[in-house]
Specification:
Blueprint: H1 3-15, E1 26-29, H2 44-56, E2 62-66, H3 71-80, E3 88-91, E4 96-99, E5 104-105, H4 107-113, H5 119-126, E6 133-134, E7 145-148, H6 151-167, E8 172-177, E9 181-186, H7 191-204, E10 212-216, E11 231-234, H8 240-249, E12 256-258, H9 263-273, H10 295-310, H11 318-326, E13 328-335, E14 341-343, H12 344-347, H13 351-354, E15 363-376, E16 379-390, E17 393-404, E18 415-421, H14 427-430
Parallel strand pairs: 1-2, 1-10, 2-3, 10-11, 11-12, 13-18
Antiparallel strand pairs: 3-4, 4-5, 6-7, 7-9, 8-9, 13-14, 15-16, 16-17, 17-18
Helix pairs in contact: 2-9, 2-10
């Protein structure tokens, strides 16, 4: 099948057809030290963001990860950190765009970047600069040649290399970031250009995002904030090179915020600052007694409740078990990954056995890709992936549940009708890739 057909199919089914109208919010975030805090062993801010996104944004908004990492290192990060699945991934400093869980490449972007670009010439000319130390082979991509260079030599090397490549007839862009990384790209590439390309694509489809928020911490994120109409947040731990760019180019721009919070917490702060939507994560909310208002929030809250129970962060009592059972319809069933079928109310009795079994441990639960379809008024089919992380041990399953909030069945909130999981041998397939 023609790659362009595959791309169009993936774009349509996984993104455009899921949205009934323009995305409410398109959140575009760098990963390392922006969405992901490598100095937080508990991954607290990342997990707070995950719960917020799946509960309130997944159904009508778009999550875009924009990273300097190659696909290889991007997949590795997903195995190491409790990340949710983006709708779109921009990788290799804006030289690769892929869609959905299967990461189908955008063929149109590839063709655009091929203009006035010759990787062989770039390799030939950069080899003449002893200051440039090539990065790992995985980081050398079709439209990106990457090096390490000492900070005090970066400016002079960049200037000389730009002149040489221009004389060879190439139209390139050289980006220096992180105080050490130097990337040579086609001039039309970069995180900002990739974002502009996507925004134009959504405009062509008649579904431009109502709001777009770009999030970053380093020099290669600067051009994200230069796209017209885009809100931007520099997390509190932003590097000097980005802060300097902001001071020289955008210090009076009210649409760009230097957050007081680190990493993903800074992103959550920006959502509230710019009034782009709810920014209170379910992980930050104790039991308020308020009615659950959506199947997405119901799934997120149930996962968090199980986590707290096993970490002994809620009181062990029969009232707790009774409260869980109250959310389940009498006829509700659980289809276990083994294939066994249980009455859900009876199965909840097993919760008594696992109370506090993860107390004092780095045990977390998060849900990913929560998608709800209304089968009939008040009846929802909800599919999602549930992940558990305990220390370095990680496991997950794909779940399907049916929820109901029909008044003749429930006084308020959602009642569980059916809950099922795919067999354990699918866990490997669900591993980030």
């Amino acid at each position: 099948m023609d790659t362009r057909c595959v791309t169009r199919l993936n774009w349509g089914l996984n993104i455009m057809d899921r949205l009934n109208s323009s995305p409410r919010l398109m959140l575009v975030s760098d990963l390392d030290h922006t969405m992901v805090d490598h100095h937080d062993p508990e991954n607290s801010s990342l997990l707070r963001f995950n719960a917020l996104w799946e509960a309130y944004y997944r159904q009508d908004s778009l999550l875009v990860f924009s990273t300097g990492r190659s696909p290889t290192l991007y997949k590795q990060l997903r195995k190491e950190k409790p990340m949710i699945t983006p709708d779109i991934a921009i990788m290799s400093v804006g030289t690769e765009i892929t869609y959905g869980r299967s990461m189908v490449p955008d063929d149109g972007w590839v063709q655009f970047l091929n203009q006035k670009w010759d990787k062989n010439i770039v390799i030939e000319e950069t080899s003449k600069f002893p200051e440039l130390k090539p990065q790992a082979e995985t980081e050398q991509r079709p439209h990106k040649v990457s090096f390490y260079v000492e900070k005090d030599k970066a400016q002079s090397v960049t200037k000389a290399l730009s002149k040489v490549l221009e004389e060879r007839g190439l139209n390139v862009k050289i980006i220096y970031s992180g105080g050490i990384d130097l990337d040579v790209l086609p001039n039309g590439a970069g995180k900002g250009q990739a974002l502009a390309y996507l925004l134009k694509k959504f405009e062509t489809e008649g579904k431009p995002p109502l709001n777009t928020l770009a999030c970053g911490d380093s020099g290669n994120d600067a051009e994200l904030f230069s796209i017209p109409g885009v809100y931007g947040v520099m997390v509190s731990n932003a590097q000097e090179e980005l802060l300097q760019w902001h001071s020289e180019n955008a210090k009076d721009n009210p649409k760009i915020l230097h957050a007081s919070e680190r990493c993903a917490s800074g992103i959550i702060q920006a959502i509230g600052h710019f009034k782009l939507g709810l920014n209170l994560s379910p992980r930050d909310v104790s039991d308020t007694g308020e009615e659950v208002s959506s199947p997405h929030l119901e799934i997120v809250n149930f996962a968090l409740l199980v986590e707290k129970w096993r970490r002994a962060e809620v009181e062990s009592s029969e009232l707790f078990i009774a409260g869980l059972k109250a959310t389940v319809l009498a006829s509700a069933i659980l289809i276990h990954p083994s294939g066994s079928v249980y009455n859900m109310k009876e199965y909840l009795n097993t919760f008594r056995k696992v109370y506090g079994d993860k107390k004092g441990k780095q045990y977390r639960i998060w849900v990913d890709d929560v998608l709800a379809t209304e089968l009939a008024p008040g009846i929802w089919l909800v599919k999602f992936d549930k992940w558990e992380l305990c220390g370095e041990e990680r496991k997950g399953c794909a779940f399907t549940s049916i929820l109901s909030n029909k008044k003749e069945i429930r006084i308020s909130g959602f009642g569980l009708v059916q809950f099922g999981a795919r067999a354990p041998d699918l866990v490997g397939r669900l591993s980030p890739r």
